[in-house]
Protein backbone atom coordinates (compact mmCIF):
# COMPACT_ATOMS: atom_id res chain seq x y z
CA UNK A 1 0.00 0.00 0.00
CA UNK A 2 1.41 3.39 -0.98
CA UNK A 3 1.79 6.24 1.48
CA UNK A 4 -1.12 8.18 0.02
CA UNK A 5 -3.48 5.35 0.93
CA UNK A 6 -2.43 5.54 4.58
CA UNK A 7 -3.28 8.96 6.08
CA UNK A 8 -1.44 8.07 9.27
CA UNK A 9 1.79 8.03 7.20
CA UNK A 10 1.28 11.64 6.13
CA UNK A 11 3.63 14.31 7.37
CA UNK A 12 2.03 17.50 6.05
CA UNK A 13 3.53 20.95 6.29
CA UNK A 14 2.53 24.32 4.80
CA UNK A 15 5.27 26.74 3.84
CA UNK A 16 6.15 29.52 1.45
CA UNK A 17 7.33 28.32 -1.94
CA UNK A 18 11.07 28.79 -2.44
CA UNK A 19 12.95 29.07 -5.70
CA UNK A 20 14.56 25.69 -5.06
CA UNK A 21 11.09 24.13 -5.20
CA UNK A 22 10.60 25.02 -8.87
CA UNK A 23 11.44 21.57 -10.31
CA UNK A 24 8.74 19.95 -8.16
CA UNK A 25 6.31 22.81 -8.87
CA UNK A 26 6.87 22.44 -12.63
CA UNK A 27 6.29 18.68 -12.51
CA UNK A 28 3.07 19.16 -10.52
CA UNK A 29 1.69 21.92 -12.79
CA UNK A 30 2.58 19.97 -15.93
CA UNK A 31 0.66 16.98 -14.57
CA UNK A 32 -2.44 18.96 -13.54
CA UNK A 33 -2.52 21.50 -16.40
CA UNK A 34 -1.79 19.07 -19.21
CA UNK A 35 -4.62 20.60 -21.28
CA UNK A 36 -3.78 24.21 -20.40
CA UNK A 37 -0.18 24.54 -21.42
CA UNK A 38 1.45 23.13 -18.30
CA UNK A 39 3.62 25.02 -15.82
CA UNK A 40 4.67 28.65 -15.63
CA UNK A 41 8.27 29.25 -16.62
CA UNK A 42 11.01 29.37 -14.02
CA UNK A 43 11.44 33.09 -14.64
CA UNK A 44 7.74 33.75 -14.03
CA UNK A 45 7.68 31.82 -10.76
CA UNK A 46 10.96 33.29 -9.49
CA UNK A 47 9.78 36.82 -10.27
CA UNK A 48 6.49 36.15 -8.46
CA UNK A 49 8.35 34.82 -5.42
CA UNK A 50 10.56 37.91 -5.37
CA UNK A 51 7.56 40.24 -5.63
CA UNK A 52 5.15 38.62 -3.17
CA UNK A 53 6.77 35.71 -1.32
CA UNK A 54 4.04 35.43 1.34
CA UNK A 55 1.40 34.78 -1.31
CA UNK A 56 3.07 31.69 -2.76
CA UNK A 57 2.07 28.83 -0.49
CA UNK A 58 2.95 25.15 -0.78
CA UNK A 59 1.74 21.97 0.88
CA UNK A 60 4.35 19.27 1.39
CA UNK A 61 4.04 15.63 2.35
CA UNK A 62 7.41 14.97 3.92
CA UNK A 63 9.62 16.65 1.28
CA UNK A 64 7.30 16.12 -1.67
CA UNK A 65 5.38 19.09 -3.06
CA UNK A 66 1.73 17.99 -3.35
CA UNK A 67 -0.22 21.26 -3.57
CA UNK A 68 0.18 24.97 -4.20
CA UNK A 69 -1.70 28.27 -4.27
CA UNK A 70 -0.12 31.13 -6.23
CA UNK A 71 -1.24 34.69 -5.56
CA UNK A 72 -0.63 38.28 -6.61
CA UNK A 73 -1.69 41.69 -5.31
CA UNK A 74 -4.20 43.72 -7.31
CA UNK A 75 -6.36 46.81 -7.11
CA UNK A 76 -9.76 45.67 -5.88
CA UNK A 77 -11.72 48.33 -7.80
CA UNK A 78 -10.21 47.17 -11.11
CA UNK A 79 -10.27 43.41 -10.70
CA UNK A 80 -13.66 43.15 -9.01
CA UNK A 81 -14.98 44.19 -12.42
CA UNK A 82 -14.83 42.29 -15.73
CA UNK A 83 -11.32 41.33 -16.86
CA UNK A 84 -9.47 38.49 -18.55
CA UNK A 85 -6.53 36.35 -17.58
CA UNK A 86 -4.33 38.38 -19.92
CA UNK A 87 -4.91 41.45 -17.73
CA UNK A 88 -2.86 39.68 -15.06
CA UNK A 89 0.12 38.89 -17.28
CA UNK A 90 2.72 41.23 -18.70
CA UNK A 91 5.63 40.91 -21.13
CA UNK A 92 7.39 37.53 -21.15
CA UNK A 93 4.74 36.06 -18.85
CA UNK A 94 5.70 38.31 -15.95
CA UNK A 95 2.75 38.49 -13.55
CA UNK A 96 1.67 42.06 -12.91
CA UNK A 97 1.83 42.06 -9.14
CA UNK A 98 0.81 45.45 -7.71
CA UNK A 99 2.65 46.23 -4.45
CA UNK A 100 0.02 48.92 -3.70
CA UNK A 101 -2.89 46.57 -4.27
CA UNK A 102 -5.58 46.17 -1.62
CA UNK A 103 -6.69 42.66 -2.62
CA UNK A 104 -5.14 39.25 -3.18
CA UNK A 105 -5.79 37.61 -6.54
CA UNK A 106 -5.71 33.83 -6.63
CA UNK A 107 -3.79 32.77 -9.72
CA UNK A 108 -3.59 29.03 -9.27
CA UNK A 109 -4.72 26.45 -6.75
CA UNK A 110 -4.06 22.79 -7.28
CA UNK A 111 -3.50 19.48 -5.49
CA UNK A 112 -1.66 16.43 -6.80
CA UNK A 113 -4.41 14.17 -8.23
CA UNK A 114 -3.11 11.24 -6.21
CA UNK A 115 -3.70 13.21 -2.98
CA UNK A 116 -7.26 14.32 -3.70
CA UNK A 117 -10.04 13.19 -1.40
CA UNK A 118 -8.38 14.29 1.85
CA UNK A 119 -9.62 17.91 1.73
CA UNK A 120 -6.07 19.15 1.50
CA UNK A 121 -7.08 22.01 -0.76
CA UNK A 122 -9.03 23.51 2.13
CA UNK A 123 -5.80 23.84 4.10
CA UNK A 124 -4.22 25.92 1.36
CA UNK A 125 -7.31 28.08 1.01
CA UNK A 126 -7.41 28.62 4.77
CA UNK A 127 -3.73 29.60 4.76
CA UNK A 128 -4.39 32.21 2.07
CA UNK A 129 -7.41 33.54 4.00
CA UNK A 130 -5.26 33.91 7.11
CA UNK A 131 -2.66 35.76 5.04
CA UNK A 132 -5.41 38.08 3.78
CA UNK A 133 -6.40 38.88 7.37
CA UNK A 134 -2.87 39.32 8.67
CA UNK A 135 -1.79 41.63 5.85
CA UNK A 136 -5.11 43.53 5.94
CA UNK A 137 -6.20 42.93 2.38
CA UNK A 138 -9.78 43.77 1.48
CA UNK A 139 -10.59 40.47 -0.19
CA UNK A 140 -9.38 37.49 -2.17
CA UNK A 141 -10.46 37.59 -5.81
CA UNK A 142 -10.09 34.82 -8.36
CA UNK A 143 -11.13 33.96 -11.86
CA UNK A 144 -12.50 30.46 -11.44
CA UNK A 145 -12.66 27.83 -14.16
CA UNK A 146 -15.85 25.78 -14.54
CA UNK A 147 -14.29 22.62 -16.00
CA UNK A 148 -17.47 20.54 -16.06
CA UNK A 149 -19.43 23.09 -18.10
CA UNK A 150 -18.63 21.45 -21.42
CA UNK A 151 -20.82 18.53 -20.34
CA UNK A 152 -23.84 20.84 -19.93
CA UNK A 153 -23.87 23.00 -23.04
CA UNK A 154 -27.67 23.05 -22.94
CA UNK A 155 -27.36 25.42 -19.98
CA UNK A 156 -26.32 29.05 -20.04
CA UNK A 157 -23.28 29.81 -17.85
CA UNK A 158 -25.60 31.48 -15.33
CA UNK A 159 -27.93 28.49 -15.17
CA UNK A 160 -24.94 26.18 -14.82
CA UNK A 161 -23.54 28.20 -11.92
CA UNK A 162 -26.97 28.20 -10.23
CA UNK A 163 -27.18 24.43 -10.64
CA UNK A 164 -23.73 23.98 -9.08
CA UNK A 165 -24.67 26.29 -6.19
CA UNK A 166 -27.82 24.24 -5.53
CA UNK A 167 -25.75 21.03 -5.80
CA UNK A 168 -27.69 19.70 -8.73
CA UNK A 169 -24.39 19.56 -10.62
CA UNK A 170 -20.89 19.00 -9.25
CA UNK A 171 -18.02 21.03 -10.66
CA UNK A 172 -14.59 20.09 -9.40
CA UNK A 173 -13.47 23.73 -9.19
CA UNK A 174 -16.59 25.79 -8.50
CA UNK A 175 -18.16 23.37 -5.99
CA UNK A 176 -14.95 23.46 -3.97
CA UNK A 177 -14.71 27.26 -4.09
CA UNK A 178 -18.33 27.76 -3.01
CA UNK A 179 -17.86 25.35 -0.11
CA UNK A 180 -14.90 27.45 1.03
CA UNK A 181 -16.84 30.66 1.47
CA UNK A 182 -16.34 32.25 -1.95
CA UNK A 183 -19.24 33.92 -3.71
CA UNK A 184 -19.72 34.41 -7.44
CA UNK A 185 -19.73 38.14 -8.19
CA UNK A 186 -20.17 37.89 -11.96
CA UNK A 187 -19.51 35.77 -15.05
CA UNK A 188 -16.35 36.50 -16.99
CA UNK A 189 -16.45 35.94 -20.75
CA UNK A 190 -13.39 35.03 -22.82
CA UNK A 191 -11.41 34.79 -19.58
CA UNK A 192 -9.31 31.88 -20.83
CA UNK A 193 -10.28 31.40 -24.50
CA UNK A 194 -8.21 28.20 -24.72
CA UNK A 195 -10.05 26.60 -21.78
CA UNK A 196 -12.24 24.23 -23.81
CA UNK A 197 -13.69 22.57 -20.73
CA UNK A 198 -15.03 25.91 -19.44
CA UNK A 199 -15.90 27.08 -22.98
CA UNK A 200 -13.86 30.21 -22.25
CA UNK A 201 -16.13 31.27 -19.38
CA UNK A 202 -15.07 31.79 -15.78
CA UNK A 203 -16.55 32.94 -12.50
CA UNK A 204 -15.30 36.05 -10.74
CA UNK A 205 -15.06 34.82 -7.16
CA UNK A 206 -14.64 36.81 -3.98
CA UNK A 207 -13.94 36.02 -0.35
CA UNK A 208 -14.33 39.19 1.74
CA UNK A 209 -12.08 39.89 4.72
CA UNK A 210 -14.54 41.01 7.40
CA UNK A 211 -11.69 42.48 9.46
CA UNK A 212 -10.37 44.69 6.68
CA UNK A 213 -9.56 48.27 7.71
CA UNK A 214 -8.81 50.76 4.90
CA UNK A 215 -5.54 52.65 5.07
CA UNK A 216 -7.39 55.89 5.81
CA UNK A 217 -9.47 54.18 8.45
CA UNK A 218 -9.55 55.98 11.78
CA UNK A 219 -10.00 53.43 14.55
CA UNK A 220 -12.77 54.19 17.02
CA UNK A 221 -12.59 53.71 20.74
CA UNK A 222 -15.19 50.96 20.85
CA UNK A 223 -14.18 48.22 23.22
CA UNK A 224 -14.15 44.63 21.99
CA UNK A 225 -14.22 43.12 25.49
CA UNK A 226 -17.27 44.43 27.35
CA UNK A 227 -18.45 43.60 30.86
CA UNK A 228 -22.19 43.68 31.32
CA UNK A 229 -23.80 43.46 34.74
CA UNK A 230 -27.33 43.17 36.02
CA UNK A 231 -29.13 43.49 39.33
CA UNK A 232 -31.67 40.86 40.27
CA UNK A 233 -33.60 43.30 42.39
CA UNK A 234 -35.35 42.51 45.68
CA UNK A 235 -38.71 44.26 45.91
CA UNK A 236 -39.08 45.55 49.46
CA UNK A 237 -41.15 48.11 51.31
CA UNK A 238 -39.61 51.58 51.45
CA UNK A 239 -40.47 54.78 53.31
CA UNK A 240 -39.32 57.32 50.72
CA UNK A 241 -37.93 57.70 47.17
CA UNK A 242 -34.58 58.69 48.70
CA UNK A 243 -34.41 55.35 50.47
CA UNK A 244 -35.04 53.51 47.21
CA UNK A 245 -32.46 55.62 45.38
CA UNK A 246 -29.95 54.74 48.08
CA UNK A 247 -30.53 51.09 47.24
CA UNK A 248 -29.96 51.84 43.53
CA UNK A 249 -26.70 53.64 44.34
CA UNK A 250 -25.54 50.70 46.45
CA UNK A 251 -25.82 48.38 43.45
CA UNK A 252 -24.40 50.84 40.92
CA UNK A 253 -21.41 51.22 43.25
CA UNK A 254 -20.97 47.43 43.19
CA UNK A 255 -21.08 47.47 39.40
CA UNK A 256 -18.35 50.12 39.38
CA UNK A 257 -16.23 48.08 41.81
CA UNK A 258 -16.33 45.22 39.29
CA UNK A 259 -15.48 47.58 36.40
CA UNK A 260 -18.72 46.81 34.61
CA UNK A 261 -19.49 48.77 31.46
CA UNK A 262 -23.24 48.35 31.93
CA UNK A 263 -25.62 47.98 34.86
CA UNK A 264 -29.19 46.91 34.21
CA UNK A 265 -32.15 47.25 36.57
CA UNK A 266 -35.46 45.34 36.16
CA UNK A 267 -38.80 46.57 34.88
CA UNK A 268 -40.72 48.77 37.38
CA UNK A 269 -37.84 48.54 39.88
CA UNK A 270 -39.27 51.52 41.80
CA UNK A 271 -42.77 50.01 42.11
CA UNK A 272 -42.43 49.82 45.95
CA UNK A 273 -43.15 53.57 45.97
CA UNK A 274 -46.72 52.79 44.91
CA UNK A 275 -47.19 51.60 48.49
CA UNK A 276 -46.84 55.23 49.59
CA UNK A 277 -49.88 56.28 47.58
CA UNK A 278 -52.91 56.94 49.74
CA UNK A 279 -55.31 55.59 47.12
CA UNK A 280 -55.77 51.87 46.46
CA UNK A 281 -56.97 52.60 42.93
CA UNK A 282 -54.33 51.09 40.62
CA UNK A 283 -54.80 53.77 37.99
CA UNK A 284 -54.12 56.50 40.54
CA UNK A 285 -51.21 54.60 42.12
CA UNK A 286 -49.35 54.11 38.82
CA UNK A 287 -49.69 57.81 38.03
CA UNK A 288 -48.46 58.59 41.53
CA UNK A 289 -45.38 56.51 40.70
CA UNK A 290 -44.97 58.30 37.36
CA UNK A 291 -44.57 61.53 39.32
CA UNK A 292 -41.12 60.32 40.46
CA UNK A 293 -39.84 59.22 37.03
CA UNK A 294 -38.15 62.45 35.96
CA UNK A 295 -36.43 62.71 39.35
CA UNK A 296 -35.19 59.12 39.22
CA UNK A 297 -33.98 59.54 35.64
CA UNK A 298 -31.90 62.58 36.58
CA UNK A 299 -30.52 61.03 39.76
CA UNK A 300 -29.55 57.77 38.03
CA UNK A 301 -27.91 59.77 35.25
CA UNK A 302 -25.76 61.44 37.91
CA UNK A 303 -24.89 58.01 39.32
CA UNK A 304 -23.89 56.79 35.85
CA UNK A 305 -21.44 59.67 35.51
CA UNK A 306 -20.15 59.47 39.09
CA UNK A 307 -19.57 55.70 39.02
CA UNK A 308 -18.53 55.49 35.36
CA UNK A 309 -21.17 52.91 34.40
CA UNK A 310 -23.76 52.99 31.63
CA UNK A 311 -27.07 52.34 33.42
CA UNK A 312 -30.20 50.85 31.88
CA UNK A 313 -32.88 52.03 34.29
CA UNK A 314 -35.11 49.01 33.97
CA UNK A 315 -38.38 50.80 33.32
CA UNK A 316 -40.61 53.41 34.94
CA UNK A 317 -44.05 54.81 34.13
CA UNK A 318 -43.95 58.12 32.27
CA UNK A 319 -46.87 60.53 31.91
CA UNK A 320 -46.54 62.83 28.91
CA UNK A 321 -48.00 66.29 28.38
CA UNK A 322 -51.17 64.84 26.90
CA UNK A 323 -51.76 62.74 30.03
CA UNK A 324 -50.83 59.51 28.19
CA UNK A 325 -48.99 56.93 30.26
CA UNK A 326 -46.05 54.95 28.84
CA UNK A 327 -43.69 52.30 30.21
CA UNK A 328 -40.22 53.74 29.54
CA UNK A 329 -36.66 52.52 29.94
CA UNK A 330 -33.81 55.02 29.98
CA UNK A 331 -30.22 54.57 28.90
CA UNK A 332 -28.15 56.78 31.19
CA UNK A 333 -24.71 56.88 29.61
CA UNK A 334 -21.65 57.53 31.71
CA UNK A 335 -20.92 60.59 29.58
CA UNK A 336 -24.07 62.23 30.96
CA UNK A 337 -26.36 61.79 27.95
CA UNK A 338 -29.74 60.10 28.31
CA UNK A 339 -31.98 58.34 25.78
CA UNK A 340 -35.22 56.45 26.11
CA UNK A 341 -36.92 53.34 24.78
CA UNK A 342 -40.66 53.04 25.29
CA UNK A 343 -42.26 49.65 25.65
CA UNK A 344 -43.99 48.88 22.36
CA UNK A 345 -46.30 46.01 23.25
CA UNK A 346 -48.45 46.49 26.34
CA UNK A 347 -49.67 43.50 28.31
CA UNK A 348 -53.40 43.04 28.96
CA UNK A 349 -52.80 43.85 32.64
CA UNK A 350 -50.91 47.08 31.91
CA UNK A 351 -53.62 48.14 29.49
CA UNK A 352 -56.63 47.32 31.69
CA UNK A 353 -55.32 48.16 35.18
CA UNK A 354 -53.03 51.11 34.39
CA UNK A 355 -54.19 52.32 30.94
CA UNK A 356 -50.62 52.29 29.60
CA UNK A 357 -50.13 52.97 25.88
CA UNK A 358 -47.47 51.45 23.64
CA UNK A 359 -44.58 53.39 22.17
CA UNK A 360 -44.03 53.78 18.43
CA UNK A 361 -40.27 53.56 17.86
CA UNK A 362 -37.40 51.14 18.43
CA UNK A 363 -33.84 52.38 18.52
CA UNK A 364 -30.30 51.06 18.61
CA UNK A 365 -28.08 53.19 20.84
CA UNK A 366 -24.40 53.90 20.33
CA UNK A 367 -22.35 53.60 23.50
CA UNK A 368 -18.65 53.48 24.30
CA UNK A 369 -19.02 49.71 24.70
CA UNK A 370 -21.00 48.68 21.63
CA UNK A 371 -24.38 49.26 20.03
CA UNK A 372 -27.21 48.23 22.31
CA UNK A 373 -30.95 47.82 22.21
CA UNK A 374 -33.56 47.73 24.97
CA UNK A 375 -36.80 45.76 24.86
CA UNK A 376 -38.97 45.89 27.97
CA UNK A 377 -40.28 42.48 29.06
CA UNK A 378 -43.22 41.57 26.77
CA UNK A 379 -41.51 43.21 23.77
CA UNK A 380 -38.92 40.43 23.59
CA UNK A 381 -41.73 38.00 22.76
CA UNK A 382 -42.17 39.73 19.41
CA UNK A 383 -39.25 38.70 17.15
CA UNK A 384 -39.76 41.52 14.66
CA UNK A 385 -38.48 44.18 17.06
CA UNK A 386 -35.17 42.49 17.83
CA UNK A 387 -34.69 41.67 14.15
CA UNK A 388 -35.11 45.33 13.20
CA UNK A 389 -32.49 46.18 15.82
CA UNK A 390 -30.16 43.45 14.56
CA UNK A 391 -30.42 44.87 11.05
CA UNK A 392 -29.19 48.13 12.59
CA UNK A 393 -26.05 46.40 13.92
CA UNK A 394 -27.08 45.81 17.52
CA UNK A 395 -24.47 44.00 19.64
CA UNK A 396 -26.24 43.60 23.00
CA UNK A 397 -29.95 43.50 23.81
CA UNK A 398 -31.06 44.36 27.35
CA UNK A 399 -34.44 43.05 28.50
CA UNK A 400 -35.57 44.40 31.88
CA UNK A 401 -38.61 42.37 32.95
CA UNK A 402 -41.15 41.79 35.69
CA UNK A 403 -43.00 38.47 35.89
CA UNK A 404 -45.08 37.13 38.74
CA UNK A 405 -45.08 33.42 37.87
CA UNK A 406 -42.63 30.91 36.51
CA UNK A 407 -44.54 30.35 33.28
CA UNK A 408 -44.53 34.10 32.63
CA UNK A 409 -40.80 34.15 33.31
CA UNK A 410 -40.21 31.22 30.95
CA UNK A 411 -41.94 33.06 28.13
CA UNK A 412 -39.46 35.89 28.52
CA UNK A 413 -36.49 33.58 28.93
CA UNK A 414 -37.14 31.28 25.99
CA UNK A 415 -37.95 34.17 23.66
CA UNK A 416 -34.80 36.00 24.74
CA UNK A 417 -32.71 32.92 23.99
CA UNK A 418 -34.30 32.72 20.57
CA UNK A 419 -33.50 36.39 19.92
CA UNK A 420 -29.83 35.77 20.77
CA UNK A 421 -29.62 32.87 18.32
CA UNK A 422 -31.60 34.28 15.42
CA UNK A 423 -30.00 37.74 15.62
CA UNK A 424 -26.49 36.61 16.57
CA UNK A 425 -26.19 38.99 19.50
CA UNK A 426 -25.90 38.91 23.29
CA UNK A 427 -29.12 39.21 25.30
CA UNK A 428 -29.44 40.03 29.01
CA UNK A 429 -32.71 39.51 30.87
CA UNK A 430 -32.92 41.19 34.26
CA UNK A 431 -35.85 40.76 36.64
CA UNK A 432 -37.05 41.34 40.19
CA UNK A 433 -37.76 38.99 43.07
CA UNK A 434 -39.50 39.17 46.43
CA UNK A 435 -42.94 40.30 47.58
CA UNK A 436 -44.84 43.59 47.71
CA UNK A 437 -48.06 42.74 49.55
CA UNK A 438 -48.82 46.43 50.03
CA UNK A 439 -48.92 47.06 46.24
CA UNK A 440 -51.97 45.79 44.39
CA UNK A 441 -51.16 43.38 41.48
CA UNK A 442 -47.39 43.60 42.13
CA UNK A 443 -47.40 41.45 45.24
CA UNK A 444 -45.17 38.59 43.96
CA UNK A 445 -42.32 38.24 41.48
CA UNK A 446 -40.39 35.37 39.91
CA UNK A 447 -37.02 35.76 38.20
CA UNK A 448 -33.84 33.97 37.23
CA UNK A 449 -31.88 36.62 35.38
CA UNK A 450 -29.45 35.50 32.69
CA UNK A 451 -27.12 36.49 29.87
CA UNK A 452 -27.43 34.56 26.60
CA UNK A 453 -25.10 34.28 23.62
CA UNK A 454 -25.46 32.99 20.07
CA UNK A 455 -25.21 29.20 19.98
CA UNK A 456 -21.93 28.37 18.27
CA UNK A 457 -18.45 27.12 19.06
CA UNK A 458 -17.11 30.53 20.16
CA UNK A 459 -19.58 30.63 23.04
CA UNK A 460 -20.53 28.42 26.01
CA UNK A 461 -21.94 25.04 24.99
CA UNK A 462 -25.39 25.90 26.39
CA UNK A 463 -25.25 29.51 25.10
CA UNK A 464 -25.61 30.85 28.67
CA UNK A 465 -22.92 33.35 29.65
CA UNK A 466 -24.17 33.93 33.20
CA UNK A 467 -27.18 33.04 35.31
CA UNK A 468 -28.48 33.92 38.75
CA UNK A 469 -30.01 31.76 41.44
CA UNK A 470 -33.78 31.89 41.03
CA UNK A 471 -35.66 34.28 43.34
CA UNK A 472 -32.56 35.51 45.18
CA UNK A 473 -31.34 39.09 45.23
CA UNK A 474 -27.89 39.23 43.66
CA UNK A 475 -25.77 40.81 40.97
CA UNK A 476 -24.45 38.96 37.92
CA UNK A 477 -21.82 39.71 35.30
CA UNK A 478 -20.36 38.41 32.09
CA UNK A 479 -17.51 39.50 29.85
CA UNK A 480 -18.73 39.47 26.25
CA UNK A 481 -16.54 39.77 23.17
CA UNK A 482 -18.05 41.92 20.43
CA UNK A 483 -15.54 40.71 17.84
CA UNK A 484 -16.91 37.20 18.25
CA UNK A 485 -20.23 38.51 16.96
CA UNK A 486 -18.53 39.74 13.78
CA UNK A 487 -16.98 36.32 13.31
CA UNK A 488 -20.12 34.28 14.00
CA UNK A 489 -22.23 36.45 11.68
CA UNK A 490 -19.85 35.85 8.78
CA UNK A 491 -18.03 32.60 9.46
CA UNK A 492 -20.08 30.75 12.08
CA UNK A 493 -21.58 27.30 11.71
CA UNK A 494 -24.76 28.99 10.47
CA UNK A 495 -25.45 32.55 9.34
CA UNK A 496 -28.91 33.45 10.59
CA UNK A 497 -28.71 37.04 9.41
CA UNK A 498 -26.88 36.49 6.13
CA UNK A 499 -29.04 33.54 5.09
CA UNK A 500 -32.37 35.35 5.32
CA UNK A 501 -34.31 34.94 2.08
CA UNK A 502 -34.74 38.59 1.14
CA UNK A 503 -35.94 37.39 -2.24
CA UNK A 504 -38.99 35.90 -0.51
CA UNK A 505 -39.76 38.15 2.46
CA UNK A 506 -38.75 41.36 4.17
CA UNK A 507 -39.34 43.32 7.36
CA UNK A 508 -39.75 47.06 7.68
CA UNK A 509 -41.01 49.57 10.20
CA UNK A 510 -44.15 51.04 8.65
CA UNK A 511 -44.98 54.20 10.60
CA UNK A 512 -45.79 55.49 14.04
CA UNK A 513 -48.53 53.54 15.76
CA UNK A 514 -52.16 54.50 16.22
CA UNK A 515 -52.15 57.62 14.09
CA UNK A 516 -55.59 59.13 14.01
CA UNK A 517 -57.27 58.42 10.67
CA UNK A 518 -58.30 62.06 10.50
CA UNK A 519 -54.62 63.06 10.27
CA UNK A 520 -53.85 60.78 7.31
CA UNK A 521 -54.10 61.66 3.64
CA UNK A 522 -56.30 59.59 1.33
CA UNK A 523 -53.20 57.78 -0.01
CA UNK A 524 -52.00 57.01 3.52
CA UNK A 525 -55.45 55.73 4.45
CA UNK A 526 -55.41 53.36 1.49
CA UNK A 527 -51.85 52.25 2.25
CA UNK A 528 -52.66 51.50 5.87
CA UNK A 529 -56.13 50.06 5.40
CA UNK A 530 -56.45 47.18 7.82
CA UNK A 531 -53.07 47.90 9.41
CA UNK A 532 -52.44 46.64 12.90
CA UNK A 533 -50.67 49.93 13.49
CA UNK A 534 -53.93 51.80 13.07
CA UNK A 535 -55.46 49.76 15.83
CA UNK A 536 -58.19 48.08 13.77
CA UNK A 537 -60.02 45.31 15.61
CA UNK A 538 -58.98 41.84 14.53
CA UNK A 539 -62.37 41.07 13.06
CA UNK A 540 -62.25 44.24 10.94
CA UNK A 541 -58.82 43.36 9.59
CA UNK A 542 -60.02 39.87 8.77
CA UNK A 543 -62.96 41.29 6.86
CA UNK A 544 -60.75 43.69 4.92
CA UNK A 545 -58.37 40.93 3.93
From TrEMBL:
<protein>
    <submittedName>
        <fullName>Putative amidohydrolase protein</fullName>
        <ecNumber>3.5.4.2</ecNumber>
    </submittedName>
</protein>
<dbReference type="Pfam" id="PF00795">
    <property type="entry name" value="CN_hydrolase"/>
</dbReference>
<dbReference type="InterPro" id="IPR036526">
    <property type="entry name" value="C-N_Hydrolase_sf"/>
</dbReference>
<keyword id="KW-0378">Hydrolase</keyword>
<dbReference type="InterPro" id="IPR003010">
    <property type="entry name" value="C-N_Hydrolase"/>
</dbReference>
<comment type="similarity">
    <text>Belongs to the carbon-nitrogen hydrolase superfamily. NIT1/NIT2 family.</text>
</comment>
<dbReference type="GO" id="GO:0016747">
    <property type="term" value="F:acyltransferase activity, transferring groups other than amino-acyl groups"/>
</dbReference>
<feature type="domain" description="N-acetyltransferase">
    <location>
        <begin position="12"/>
        <end position="211"/>
    </location>
</feature>
<dbReference type="InterPro" id="IPR016181">
    <property type="entry name" value="Acyl_CoA_acyltransferase"/>
</dbReference>
<dbReference type="GO" id="GO:0000034">
    <property type="term" value="F:adenine deaminase activity"/>
</dbReference>
<feature type="domain" description="CN hydrolase">
    <location>
        <begin position="226"/>
        <end position="482"/>
    </location>
</feature>
<dbReference type="InterPro" id="IPR001110">
    <property type="entry name" value="UPF0012_CS"/>
</dbReference>
<dbReference type="InterPro" id="IPR000182">
    <property type="entry name" value="GNAT_dom"/>
</dbReference>
Amino acid sequence: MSKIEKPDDFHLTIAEIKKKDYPQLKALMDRVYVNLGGAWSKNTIHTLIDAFPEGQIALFDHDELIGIVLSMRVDYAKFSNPHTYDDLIGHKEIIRDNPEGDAIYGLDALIDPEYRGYRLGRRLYDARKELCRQLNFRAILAGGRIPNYHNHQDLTPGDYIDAVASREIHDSALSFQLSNGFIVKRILTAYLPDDAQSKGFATLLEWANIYYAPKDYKPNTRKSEVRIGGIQWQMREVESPEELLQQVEFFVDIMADYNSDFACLPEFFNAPLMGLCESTDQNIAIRFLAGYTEWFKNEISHLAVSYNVNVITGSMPYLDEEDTLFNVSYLCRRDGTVEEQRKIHITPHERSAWVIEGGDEVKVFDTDAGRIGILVCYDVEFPELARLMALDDMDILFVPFWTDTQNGYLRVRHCAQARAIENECYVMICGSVGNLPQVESLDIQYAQSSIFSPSDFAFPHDAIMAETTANTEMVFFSDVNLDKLIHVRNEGSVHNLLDRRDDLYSLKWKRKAKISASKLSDDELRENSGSVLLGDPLQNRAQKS
